[in-house]
Write a structure and sequence with these properties.
Strand content: 5-15%
Number of strands: 12
Radius of gyration: 23 Å
Distance between the termini: 43 Å
Number of domains: 2
Strand order of the largest sheet: 9-8-7-6-10-11-12
Largest sheet: 7 strands, mixed
Number of helices: 16
CATH class of the largest domain: Alpha Beta
Structural class: alpha/beta
Length: 472
Amino acid sequence: MAGEDYSFFENVTKSFDKAAKFTKWEDGLLEQIKACNAVYQMRFPIKRDDGSIEVIEAYRVQHSQHKTPCKGGIRFSEAVNQDEVMALASLMTYKCAIVNVPFGGAKGGIKINPKKYSEFELQKITRRYTAELVKKNFIGPGTDVPAPDYGTGEKEMAWILDTYATMRPGEVDAMGCVTGKPVTQGGVRGRKEATGLGVFFGVREVCLMTDVMERLGLTPGVENKRVVVQGLGNVGYHSAKFFREHGAKVVGIAEYEGSIYDANGLNEEEVFQHRRKTGSILNFPGAENLASSLDALELDCDILIPAALENVINKDNAERVKAKIIGEAANGPLTPDADEILAKKGTLIIPDMYLNAGGVTVSYFEWLKNLSHVRYGRMEKRFTENMNKHILGQIEELTGKAVNDTEKKFIEHGASEADLVHSGLEETMIEATHEIMNTWKANPEIPDMRTAAYVVAINKVGTSYGELGIFP
């Protein structure tokens, strides 16, 4: 970013060190928690559709094995490098610890622009990458479980599963080697919207804390809050959707081609369809165009959700950010310099390392589903519905009053897989939010919510090492 030299991994380390002094652990253990345990850099050839040979650069980093398997997405991007993958792997360790998901952190990346390859070429790259991971035991339901990330999705995860199962015939839990799969291949319902929904649950829970809202000069709850979302990908789209559905007003949306603003509120689905038709979010009916994507970050709003790339808020523009709450839906959207500037202004930053943990939380539910070989709700959904109908019938008979059809449908409803996944995610995010805020309140010297989140993560990982007897 202009005017600022940074290494993403150094930024994560800087935040770690800032929090470490508020913990009880000795320096040696802190160094072990901070270090990446294994870094696998690989290069392999693929034959392009035109017959030429190209050498592909790829990575898989396992940051911590204090709990196994390791867990982390695979991204396809030209920006992939070892430093970025190491940083994202370490964030995964801390993220999993905070939301009580029993995984160590990992991350993978392939240095390509997926738009420049045919589907057949992408399949060859994905399958060869998987084969390399299998050969070095860097993938498996009990070893290391990848997931989608920037530039990848269900399709790539299905290719990974098929390659793994082919190379490990007869492995009964093979389906658990990767998450984010299509539902037909062992995926879980509710995974697609999980990260955006988790962002909403986390921000909503903070907004329900009266003392925090008073300090920021805001009313409790998300109703009528003005929200700006940067990025209309999967996470940004669903974040905007859930905020709007719960009474907030999405006044600004940004994408790489520019930003739009409407004080009366925007509907993310309508903006999405407009972009689909025209190739841009600009010139959306009733909205004002802004020159660049970064302009949206400086709009007057209550809640800002950066849901795109790293380091978009830095020392060059942090002073101009007007939002009172920033919910980090992307990984590392703020630099440490921006953190310092915004903290002085009294801005509340809800950190990425737990706020965007919806994806890994629901990935955990998918992994459990794959190991149990049964869909959530299959055993009890019909029983619950029959029981609810019977109870409702008895109440109507005893009171002589009928329940209206809408309420009847709601009361009789038995939980589906998506209902259970969303409920589990809501519980996870509420619990994690309170744990972080309580840690922060218990030690007034902790400067911000990010540091409090790191303190929670370091304590949990440190305790795990201690209980394993590695560091008595």
